[in-house]
Write a structure and sequence with these properties.
There is one protein chain. This protein is an all-alpha fold. It is 71% helix and 2% strand. The chain is built from 11 helices and 2 strands; from the N terminus they run H-H-H-H-E-E-H-H-H-H-H-H-H. Strands 1-2 form a two-stranded antiparallel ribbon. Strand 1 and strand 2 form a beta hairpin. Helix 6 crosses helix 8 and helix 10 crosses helix 11.
Length: 295
């Protein structure tokens, strides 16, 4: 039973890392741009497909593929900012949110038209098992862990220590006060789309690695969990999203542990996230690390 508990912790950290990294981008986008981007899940899918092309079609290693997926998604997010969201600025939060829903449908259908409905798999073994003490991992999970161990701390350091990261957090906390302090709010909006797109693309590669076979609806399932992470951490709070993502991933995986009153079936893990979201909205709507906002 202890071995199973350790395995679930590792699985939870993998899931939580993906939610944390993608949640940071989604949270900052809302905090700075006031856009609830419901196409964020499709950004993950774009990253996964670009990495697949580089890895399988062009026969490059996974590191090159992951970088390509990250960069391509960041460029796509930036193009959507200049080509769609900025021209529509001022139309209202609800209207823009509905537009992002339409964008998600367009991206997904375009991927089905271009890539087809067949499942895709990276050039890694889907049957091999790597054993580290009590823990058993697939090669894809091992790569995802390695990426998370590098990227998550770097993201936290970027937000905490660099001038650009501090400026992003300042604009997200109080846009008007940041502008008065001399921060170029418009430029921060450009940078945050690059960061959000890049982290989403990388998250999509990690998700595809641990999932194995994937197709154009890859980003649909994690979208709700990403927004749960954003709300749980406090909308606009980057560090809140990092912490909440890891906590939510661990909670979902550990909920299946047999030592916890027999555990729940794996298919009910998203239900746990939904219950957490309802309770949070009832008793602390500003999130665990956020402040009350007026939309």
């Amino acid at each position: 039973m202890f071995e199973h508990f350790v395995q679930l912790i590792v699985n939870g950290l993998i899931t939580g890392s993906i939610l944390a990294l993608t949640g940071v981008g989604a949270s900052l986008v809302f905090g700075i741009q006031r856009i609830a981007n419901f196409a964020h899940g499709e950004y993950l899918t774009i990253g996964a497909y670009v990495a697949f092309v580089v890895n399988v079609v062009w026969h490059q290693n996974l590191i090159v593929a992951a970088v390509a997926g990250t960069v391509a998604t960041a460029v796509f997010a930036l193009a959507m900012h200049f080509g769609l969201f900025r021209p529509l600025r001022g139309r209202g939060t609800i209207a823009i949110s509905l537009i992002t829903v339409g964008l998600a449908l367009v991206i997904r259908d375009a991927l089905y038209l271009i890539a087809g409905s067949q499942v895709r798999v990276y050039a890694v073994s889907q049957s091999a098992v790597l054993t580290f003490g009590f823990v058993r991992l697939s090669p894809g999970q091992s790569v995802a862990i390695a990426v998370a161990l590098v990227v998550a701390p770097l993201t936290a350091l970027f937000l905490a220590r660099t001038r650009l990261g501090k400026s992003m957090r300042a604009v997200s906390d109080n846009r008007d006060l940041a502008a008065v302090a001399g921060i170029d709010v418009e430029r921060m909006g450009v940078y945050v789309w690059i960061l959000a797109g890049g982290l989403a693309g990388l998250g999509g590669v990690m998700l595809a690695l641990i999932q194995g076979p994937f197709e154009a609806s890859l980003g649909v399932a994690p979208l709700f969990l990403i927004f749960t992470t954003v709300v749980l951490g406090g909308i606009g709070s980057a560090f809140g999203a990092l912490t909440a993502g890891l906590a939510l991933g661990l909670a979902m995986e550990l909920s299946t542990w047999e030592g916890l009153l027999g555990g729940v079936e794996a298919k009910y893990k998203p239900v746990l996230a939904f219950l957490v979201l309802i309770i949070l909205l009832l008793y602390r709507p500003q999130g665990l690390f956020g402040r009350t906002r007026v939309l």
